[in-house]
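STRUCTURE:
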């Protein structure tokens, strides 16, 4: 395929659902500023206020205390990891008995701002949710009363309760400490909140377009308010069922910090945000009207996902803005294989007839994509070169050791042959010690290679899994090369006349 530049192309790539661009702007960072953005259906997150720091500290300790569970193995923090996203990276976590929980763990960050809690939306206060979680036989399989017995037996914890609450530990104080800590887990000051507060440069034009699409598609109908959701019950998706069919009604999840809370949906069935947005899309979008870049237009086609950048970057949502009466910047031309030269000649002629004042220029798409991987191509060539040199040097060294060993053991080999040792036994005698060294080297190199390969692959949004058989194959090839290197000298020593070797000695 050939790209032919035409005139400046003002159109911008974006997909039918260019909504995921809003995700990064919803991540907490930075202070808030004055409000000037007008009335929006989303409001900024307030900073935590009026919380006793002693209760917050005690609640955090209880939140991470496994004694709250039946068998002292799980804490609230086991599933709600506040060092990452307030939840976990698992589609479904495991409860106290090791069984998978039926629903994905929602984040605890900003949970205090939800009007309804849990995926079923059947709890309306953090205290009731904490107590229900303790009693749930699939989660903690305990109760606030049972947990209190264990906590009360700890003199240090008992003293902390007396200092914090002025009394010995009791159930209300236990639940209040945990929920006070949870109420402190707010994330104000995101770039989107700063934009809501009037800082117009806080989000990019692409993110702003994503927000406009978010509203024009009607997503804002359910995902609104301070938590961008969390206060309504809704059927799975608006256009089709998402994930597993049960429960039929789920609480609309908060989209705060959504870029960090994968996987998505009540059953964790969407591994990435792009996949979640794609599944939430219109079932029959053709002909529907959307608004973007302060303009309205209707959808005329939906394209399959395709890469516009290297595999280092995930497939991003794009929209192709087709302007029938405006000039384009680049014309894409697909040529028949083998007829590229003739096609370029015809294109140049047409171009000069239409636009003689500008020179005809073109690029090949495959060459442009190849440029995206220049560093990988260089690394590949260098790796092959140095690996070849390393193997060659290793083989020379191994051959030298085998020759030296055969010279040192000439008499031993002669005696073994006289006593009836076979050719295979003599070769095995030679090979055993060297193969042990090669195996030891492999055991050292394989974990290191696995670690560095894994780190290198982290730079790619789309990558393969490193399977064990790759290292097994590499080890087998190493042993085969070593055997081939040793075989000539080993066979030569094993087939030598023992009379000559003994006489020489």
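SEQUENCE:
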């Amino acid at each position: 395929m050939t790209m032919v530049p035409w005139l400046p192309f003002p159109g911008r790539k974006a997909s039918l659902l260019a909504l995921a661009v809003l995700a990064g702007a919803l991540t907490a960072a930075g202070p808030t500023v004055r409000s000037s953005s007008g009335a929006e259906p989303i409001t900024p997150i307030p900073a935590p206020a009026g919380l006793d720091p002693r209760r917050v500290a005690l609640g955090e300790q209880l939140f991470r205390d496994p004694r709250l569970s039946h068998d002292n193995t799980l804490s609230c923090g086991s599933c709600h990891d506040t060092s990452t996203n307030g939840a976990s990276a698992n589609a479904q976590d495991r409860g106290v008995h090791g069984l998978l929980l039926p629903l994905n763990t929602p984040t605890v960050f900003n949970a205090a701002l939800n009007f309804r809690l849990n995926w079923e939306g059947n709890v309306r206060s953090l205290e009731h949710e904490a107590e229900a979680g303790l009693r749930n036989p699939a989660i903690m399989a305990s109760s606030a009363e049972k947990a209190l017995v264990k906590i009360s037996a700890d003199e240090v914890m008992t003293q902390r309760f007396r200092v914090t609450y002025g009394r010995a530990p009791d159930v209300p104080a236990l639940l209040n400490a945990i929920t006070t800590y949870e109420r402190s887990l707010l994330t104000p000051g995101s770039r989107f909140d700063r934009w809501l507060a009037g800082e117009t440069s806080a989000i990019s034009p692409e993110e702003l377009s994503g927000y406009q699409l978010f509203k024009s598609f009607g997503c804002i109908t359910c995902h609104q308010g301070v938590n961008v959701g969390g206060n309504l019950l809704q059927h799975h998706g608006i256009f089709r069922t998402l994930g597993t069919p049960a429960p039929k009604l789920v609480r609309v999840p908060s989209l705060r910090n959504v870029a960090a809370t994968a996987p998505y949906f009540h059953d964790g069935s969407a591994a990435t945000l792009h996949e979640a947005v794609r599944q939430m899309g219109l079932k029959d979008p053709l002909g529907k009207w959307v608004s973007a870049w302060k303009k309205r237009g209707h959808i005329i086609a939906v394209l399959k996902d395709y890469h516009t950048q290297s595999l280092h970057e995930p497939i991003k949502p794009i929209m192709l803005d087709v302007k029938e009466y405006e000039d384009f910047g680049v014309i894409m031309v697909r040529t028949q294989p083998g007829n590229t030269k003739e096609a370029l000649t015809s294109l140049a002629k047409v171009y000069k007839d239409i636009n003689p004042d500008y020179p005809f220029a073109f690029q090949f798409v495959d060459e442009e994509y190849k440029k995206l991987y220049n560093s990988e191509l260089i690394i590949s060539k260098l790796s092959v070169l140095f690996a070849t040199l390393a193997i060659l040097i290793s083989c020379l060294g191994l051959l030298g050791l085998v020759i030296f060993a055969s010279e040192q053991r000439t008499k031993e080999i002669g005696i073994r042959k006289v006593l009836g040792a076979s050719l295979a036994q003599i070769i095995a005698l030679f090979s055993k010690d060297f193969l042990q060294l090669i195996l030891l080297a492999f055991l050292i190199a394989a974990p290191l290679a696995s670690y560095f390969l894994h780190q290198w692959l982290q730079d790619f949004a789309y990558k393969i899994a490193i399977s064990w058989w790759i290292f097994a194959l590499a080890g087998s090839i190493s042993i085969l090369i070593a055997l081939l290197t040793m075989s000539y000298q080993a066979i030569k020593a094993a087939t030598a006349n023992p009379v000559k070797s003994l006489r020489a000695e």
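REMARK: Residues 111 and 283 are 31 Å apart (CA to CA).
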